[in-house]
Amino acid sequence: MNLPRSYLSNIRLLAMQLYIFFLPAGGVIPLHNHPGMTVFSKLLLGEVHIKSYDLVDCQQASSSKRFSVQAVRLARLVADKVYEAPCDTSVLYPTTGGNIHQFKAVTPCAILDVLGPPYSREDGRDCSYYRDFPYQDFSSKRSLKKVQNYA
Predict the structure, then answer these.
(1) Which 8-state DSSP code applies to residue 60?
(2) Could you point out which of 61, 65, 68, 129 has its C-alpha 20 to 30 Å from the C-alpha of 11?
(3) 22 close to 112: Cβ distance less than 8 angstroms
(4) What is the pLDDT of residues 95-123, one digit of tens each?
């Protein structure tokens, strides 16, 4: 179900970008990344389910010859948990901490995101969306497939 979501933004400074997302109960911010960015996320109110992944090293992922590394990437589950405000701020680093993640509101909620450096297509920091699906040969791992023209 694709419920509406809204955000107050786009406060953009040279070194960072701020967003406040408002999600109704059941609202989703789909699985996405923040390439080359550090992200501080703070749940301001409500409850949200966060599912996040880190990509597995390319050398490990390329050992499987059955799929193109560009089309499918192995990922390690970092978090799959419901958070309730007030809670600690989470920090996502460019390659660790669950940089590929999604939010699903359990109750109406508000999330503050502070990103640095800001999004920039020219500098290779454009958001990509993903789909997760089970990888048959790795029962304890998940893989992510980059979605072209999603949203």
Answers:
(1) H
(2) 129
(3) no
(4) 776 688 999 999 999 999 998 888 888 88
